[in-house]
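Researcher: We plan to redesign the surface later, but first we want a full-length starting point. Tokens attached.
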């Protein structure tokens, strides 16, 4: 319970915590509806971030479905039509499904455009304050939040439904989700200016003998680079780091980019972000819903975060527009239907962490590249999964095991004998160790879980830590 001194009170139907990708998009979708909405954000100024800058095609589709596509205009977002995977200077191009496109954009500008749009909603009130605790009512109902503004004033917001969307360091995680987030490594972000991208309109993944790095356009003149640093220590700005980036990144990008790379190193504008894994396991309770990174995170290698978030926003805004939220029964029904709808959305989650682990395993990385290079459905279906357009976990599992099986067969054919057969078996085992915990976290069905456990017994060599 908060100190009641200087307490200002507000009432709303919906209280949204956080005006990032999730919160701002949800508030925009509810503008001028009958519901009275209060959105609380700790800092309404435009942010300079390295996250959320490649929107996969299904993210674009979700905005279209909510009639919010115009929020992608006006800040030089760049069309992305597919991916190029660079391995040993060999480019492999894979186009997104026909007629679909993604966007490279500046996250701060995208979010700010949504925040500006909110002022058009006569039912929406913006408050600048830091949300601190829930207001609890008898029967364990959450009836809103207490927050504190920059002047230190306490504010109480009473709401029928509180929607927690305060991002990856959520203040409310312990009260809203069953599991804690784990850090799986770090991305260092830099921007190269005024130089050509190796392949226009493409997201790029550079496979190296150690960890991968990515690049894609975020404006006409700017290319975002994200460089992976596995482990538990964030990279620190130092001469050693600059040396590493020279050896690891500069040596692999085309010469036409070197000048821009050198300018970037001299300026030293590096930003580092932790990458998290958090399976979406919400605690069901009256009066509160959690979504976005506050609920669920996956590795950013595949740029799937905004897509999952916008799908969830699309689902909940439809429910809020159609279902009542007056009584406990009505609210619990909405909450149950919303979380149940999420289980359709999570192949992208599994793909993100599975692919990241594959990229860290020499044999599986080779096998994956060869598999995609064969083209046809072997490239089309995986890119459809990455784009978010294909959502089936079965399609994902099918391709994942086919990569390992074909990679194993390649080994045996190249060097027939017992040793290569054992190697091939271990390769499938490695693949299983990667995907088992991820699938197990995402599937609900008990018989599927039983088959997964059986496979784990057969193939288990070692459990891959997430
Ligand atoms: C390095 C990295 C790169 C990424 N790249 C991509 C990518 O290319 N494509 C992609 O789709 N996804 C990417 N993601 C994931 C993506 O950024 C997130 O999934 C997405 O931003 C989630 O949106 P959100 O609204 O939940 O959180 P956020 O966008 O982080 O918004 C949370 C908001 O809540 C506010 N807030 C926090 N605490 C409080 C509080 N107590 N009170 C009030 N307000 C509060 C914050 O100020 C912020 O505005 C990346 C992630 C990382 C780590």
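Model: Full-length starting sequence:
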């Amino acid at each position: 319970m908060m100190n009641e001194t200087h307490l200002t009170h507000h009432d709303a139907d919906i209280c949204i915590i956080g005006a990032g990708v999730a919160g701002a998009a949800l508030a925009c979708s509810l503008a001028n509806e009958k519901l009275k909405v209060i959105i609380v954000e700790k800092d309404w100024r435009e942010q300079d971030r390295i996250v959320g800058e490649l929107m996969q095609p299904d993210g674009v589709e979700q905005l279209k479905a909510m009639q919010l596509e115009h929020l992608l205009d006006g800040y030089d977002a760049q069309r992305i039509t597919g991916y190029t995977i660079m391995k040993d200077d060999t480019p492999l191009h894979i186009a997104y499904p026909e007629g679909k496109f993604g966007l490279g954009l500046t996250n701060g500008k995208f979010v700010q455009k949504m925040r500006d749009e909110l002022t058009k909603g006569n039912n929406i009130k913006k408050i600048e304050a830091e949300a601190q605790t829930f207001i609890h009512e008898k029967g364990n109902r959450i009836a809103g939040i207490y927050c504190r503004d920059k002047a230190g004033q306490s504010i109480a917001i009473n709401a029928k439904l509180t929607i927690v969307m305060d991002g990856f360091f959520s203040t409310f995680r312990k009260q809203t989700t069953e599991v804690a987030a784990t850090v799986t490594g770090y991305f260092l972000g830099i921007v190269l200016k005024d130089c050509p991208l190796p392949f226009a309109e493409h997201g790029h993944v550079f496979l190296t003998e150690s960890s991968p790095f990515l690049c894609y356009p975020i404006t006409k003149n700017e290319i975002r680079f994200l460089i992976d640093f596995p482990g538990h220590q964030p990279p620190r700005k130092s001469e050693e780091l600059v040396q590493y980036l020279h050896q690891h990144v500069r040596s692999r990008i085309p010469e036409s980019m070197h000048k821009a790379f050198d300018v970037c190193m001299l300026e030293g504008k590096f930003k580092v972000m932790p990458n998290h894994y958090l399976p979406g396991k919400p605690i069901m309770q009256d009066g509160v819903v959690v979504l976005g990174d506050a609920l669920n995170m996956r590795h950013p290698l595949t740029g799937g975060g905004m897509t999952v978030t916008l799908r969830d926003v699309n689902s909940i805004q439809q429910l809020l527009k159609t279902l009542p939220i007056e009584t406990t029964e009505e609210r619990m029904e909405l909450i149950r239907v919303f979380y149940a709808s999420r289980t359709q959305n999570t192949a992208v989650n599994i793909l993100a962490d599975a692919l990241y682990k594959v990229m860290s395993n020499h044999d599986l990385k080779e096998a994956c590249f060869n598999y995609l290079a064969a083209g046809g459905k072997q490239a089309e279906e995986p890119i459809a999964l990455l784009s978010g357009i294909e959502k089936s976990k079965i399609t994902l599992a099918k391709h994942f095991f086919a990569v390992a099986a074909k990679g194993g067969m390649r080994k045996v054919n190249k060097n027939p004998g017992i040793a290569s057969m054992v190697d091939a078996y271990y390769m499938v085992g490695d693949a299983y160790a990667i995907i088992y915990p991820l699938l197990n976290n995402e599937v609900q069905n008990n018989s599927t879980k039983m088959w997964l456990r059986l496979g784990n017994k057969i193939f288990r060599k070692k459990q891959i830590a997430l």
